[in-house]
Amino acid sequence: MIEVRELTKRYGATTAVDALTFTVRPGRVTGFLGPNGSGKSTTLRMILGLHTPTSGSVTVQGRPFADRPRGLRHVGALLDAGDAHGGRTARAHLAVLARSNRVPLSRVDEVLEEVGLGGAARRRIAGYSLGMRQRLGIAGALLGDPPVLLFDEPLNGLDPEGVKWVRGLFRRLAAEGRTVFVSSHLMTEMEHTADELVVIGRGALIAAESLTEFASRGRRLSVTVGSPDRAALAALLLGEGAEVVDDAGLLTVSGLSAARIGRLALEHRVPLDQLTTRTASLEEAFMELTADSVEYLAGDAR
Amino acid sequence: MTTVALPVASVTEPRARFRDLVASEWLKLWSLRSTGWSLFLGALAVVAFNLGTAWDHYRYFLQYDAASRAEFVANDMALWDAFTYNAALVLILASAAMGVVSVVGEYGSGLIRTTFTAVPARGTLMAAKLLVVAVVQAVFGAVVACGSFWSTQAVLSARDIGLPITHPGAARIVVASALLAPVCAVAGMALGAVLRKSATSIVGAVVLLLLLPAVFSDRRHLTAVLAHATPLHAWERLADAGPAVEEPFPWSVGGAWVVYALWALGAAAVTVLAVRRRDQ
Question: Which parts of the sequence belong to the ABC transporter domain (chain A) (predicted)?
Fold first, then answer.
């Protein structure tokens, strides 16, 4: 369980994290979403006690993590796949971490096998691909068999097989009753991974709810209608109080159901060649919600 | 979709011990191939500087006139070859650089975040790292200083001008030269912990340990005091074996040992405090 209360971090005049409050519960995978530069990594670092909050508090299993003399058995974390020295072998890297926490050395080989690096364990990390480094980082997080796991953008650089494996791993860890908190800037990554979502933008909380609840936010029902006589149909629908947008030869209608539109068209003898109900995807819901808080927008003239 | 099958049992954890951190830092140091090479090449360079000077004296000793030869023996100049000024400069640079790298290597790669997540007791971890680096550097310094003493005196003995370790001041030269390594390595660690970037930290070490001692003149009281407060001048004072040289502001051997101790303790304190206070 991770409890974040009114967490704020300022660097000079910049507010990186602004009064964040949310709880990450055990037994499920929680996605931590936000556009680039929205304060995800800063929040994760404050959870781990690496950065001191300007105000507010954060506890892991009821205590500030920085108060623990040793961390591996409490929280496993992958912050950045690059957070290792290229000159060491994977095995030496993990052995150093294990030794500091009195984790038996046999556990090092166990986690290396688990993440699929058993064959590369004695190779130096400098020669690893990004995907292999992600796997090494995950191995390090699993080392102490902790009840809480944090992963910052763990899917970067993984091949499709790796992505599938990581998703399965997160599900399994959550099913074992652990708290699993995974950050990402891509909704599509979370769609098949997370049960719960914490969404932030410009350091402030936008949503903290289940994936299903989040999806229903964006569910502004609309119906796409195609007709050879679009003008007549549009006039008809507008007369019924619907919102109509002519979009590339198709009408996007909101405020009326597909059934009602079909009946109206039949009554007024307007031919239809397409009638589709659309629900906004999670990705759209995410884009819509964070649209106002995107920090770095391409082509943004300032 | 959500299944809470087996709640994770409450964490049972063995007691946190300082010696686990020391063992971990020991493993961390020696699991890098560069550690052994740096120590080996550093030792080779320092001994070579001393041996070169001794060889020079051995080679040309018979060409000196009688007065010069008598002066060489009377002033214990054989001890100057045991550890030369140039060798001390090289040792300071090598040890300070190794100290810098032991800290900055973790910041440069980002490993520091992994390290401090595994061990949130950051100050204790740095204390373990200080201990490991200081011990390794003390052994390195001892090997270099002893190797230099015995090899140079062996060469000079071929002209019957070598001196034994029991000669007054000889042992002090060896000990002072050996300890110069851990003192400068710890200073390098402090710079690394404060500056965090390798290039800046190395430049900082060169300025602090080599450049400043060179620019402080010992002709005025203030600059003489500042000069005496540097490890290089302290080493010079301790390695100065011959008859007393006229100095405007003379200082004691005890004072020089105190300078060594204060640098080591001060730098260690800075290293621990720097990582405890700041965001990582």
Answer: 2-227
Q: How many domains does chain A have?
A: 2
- CB contacts of A75 in chain B (<8 Å) are 117
Domain holding A246, by residue range, is: 222-278
* A197/A263 same-domain check: no
DSSP string for B99-137 = HHHHHHHHHHHSHHHHHHHH---HHHHHHHHHHHHHHHH
In tens, the pLDDT along A270-284 reads: 899 888 877 666 777
The answer to the question of residue A171 being in a domain is yes
One domain, residues A230 and A81: no
Three-state secondary-structure class, residue A218: coil
Q: Residue B4 corresponds to which tokens in the numbers above?
A: 């809470």
Long-range contacts of B218-222 (CB under 8 A, 24+ apart): B218/B247, B218/B248, B218/B249, B219/B248, B221/B249
> Is A50 part of any domain?
yes
The interface predicted TM-score of the complex, written ipTM, equals 0.88
Q: How far is CA B272 from the centre of its chain?
A: 18
The tens digit of pLDDT for each residue in B82-135 reads 999 999 999 999 999 999 999 999 998 899 999 999 999 999 999 999 999 999
Report the residue of chain B nearest A49, measured CA to CA: B120
Contact B31, B129 (CB under 8 A): no
Work out the mean pLDDT of chain A and round it to a whole number: 89
For residue A296, tell me if it sits in a domain. Answer: no
A202 plus A234 within the same structural domain:
no
Region B55-78: mean pLDDT is 89
- Among A46, A38, A42, CA closest to A206: A38
> Is the CB of A96 less than 8 angstroms away from the CB of B28?
yes
Put simply, the answer to whether B111 touches A50 (Cβ < 8 Å) is: no
Q: Does B19 touch chain A (CB under 8 A)?
A: no
The reply to whether the predicted model has a pTM over 0.95 is: no
Can you tell me the distance from the alpha carbon of B48 to that of B110, in angstroms, rounded to the nearest whole number?
A: 37
Give the pair of three-digit tokens for residue B81: 């070859």
Q: Please tell me whether residues A18 and A167 are part of one structural domain.
A: yes
In this structure, the answer to whether residues A202 and A63 fall within a common structural domain is: yes
- Strand order across the A14-24 sheet: A14-24, A2-11, A55-60
DSSP A230-293: HHHHHHHHHHTT-EEEEETTEEEEESS-HHHHHHHHHHTT---SEEEEE---HHHHHHHHHGGG
Distance in angstroms (rounded) separating the CA atoms of residues B126 and A48: 18
Paired residues of A59 in beta bridges: A3
Cβ(B230)–Cβ(B212) below 8 Å: yes
Residue B101: Cβ within 10 Å count: 23
* CATH code: domain of residue A8: 3.40.50.300
Residues of B in contact with A50 (CB under 8 A): 113, 116-117, 279-280
Is residue A286 in some structural domain? no
H or E element: which one contains A24?
strand A14-24
A157 and A263 fall within a common domain: no
Q: Provide the pLDDT for residue A285.
A: 74
Report d(CA B138, CA B135) in Å as an integer. Answer: 5
For chain B, positions 92-111, list CB contacts with chain A under 8 A: 105-106, 109-111
Helix ranges (DSSP H) in A58-179: 90-100, 106-114, 130-142, 160-175
